Amino acid sequence: MSLLLEILHKIAAHPWVYDRIQTAAGQRVSLERMRKTVPCSTRDVIVDVGGGTGSTRRVWPSLCRYVCLDIEMPKLKGFRSKNPDGLGVLGDATRMPFADGSADLLVCVAMIHHLTDEMVEQLFEEASRILRPGGRVVLLDPVLNRSRWLGRVLWRLDRGSNPRTAGDLRSRLASRFQVVHWESYAILHEYVLGIGVRQ
Fold it and tell me: How confident is the model at residue 60 (pLDDT cuts 50, 70, 90)?
């Protein structure tokens, strides 16, 4: 079974397949919710951590500076094929290759559950470092809710091996940032959308 899952995960890393999986999981609903909730100006520098093929790019104003950071080159190639002038950066969320205070908005969509607890702490430390004072970190991630049977099935198939409850994720965000928005909603999984501000 683990070999089969490994093969499926490699297939899912292909940009075309990855985008179809995200669409089937309700990504459009989530991104529209994020667009309505997260204000952004044309002057903002946005770092999309674990940005994959850059699907969140369409949420933000076209004149803002959008940077797609991902650890997988096939997904970044998919981003670059859709955004030839876009800035795709191969890098690790726990050691981001950006200067201190260089970003206004740091976005993490459906990637926190791929990180260990230690890596989440490193991610938030890096977010605090690269965000300007008053900069915001946006989390949009599926969360563990044992009462949702479909969610339990999806967690078994997901490569993310660290599902967290909404309460755990919120307390982790609040340990470094002032939480100014928090909501949960359900599509196939239960999701949370949270915004934290760097002081």
Answer: very high
